[in-house]
Design a protein that fits this description.
alpha+beta, two-stranded parallel ribbon, 1 helix
């Protein structure tokens, strides 16, 4: 697990949720962390 890819999104509001959704739709398979 040391090579697991992680994307941190600062801002857990509507824009942060949409950013996470866009990442998944674009094929991001790593972990997504919303901060805020």
């Amino acid at each position: 697990m040391a090579n697991e890819r992680v994307m941190a999104i600062v801002g857990a509001g509507h824009a942060g949720g949409r950013a996470a959704q866009a990442l998944r739709q674009a094929g991001w398979r790593g972990r997504i962390v919303l901060v805020g």
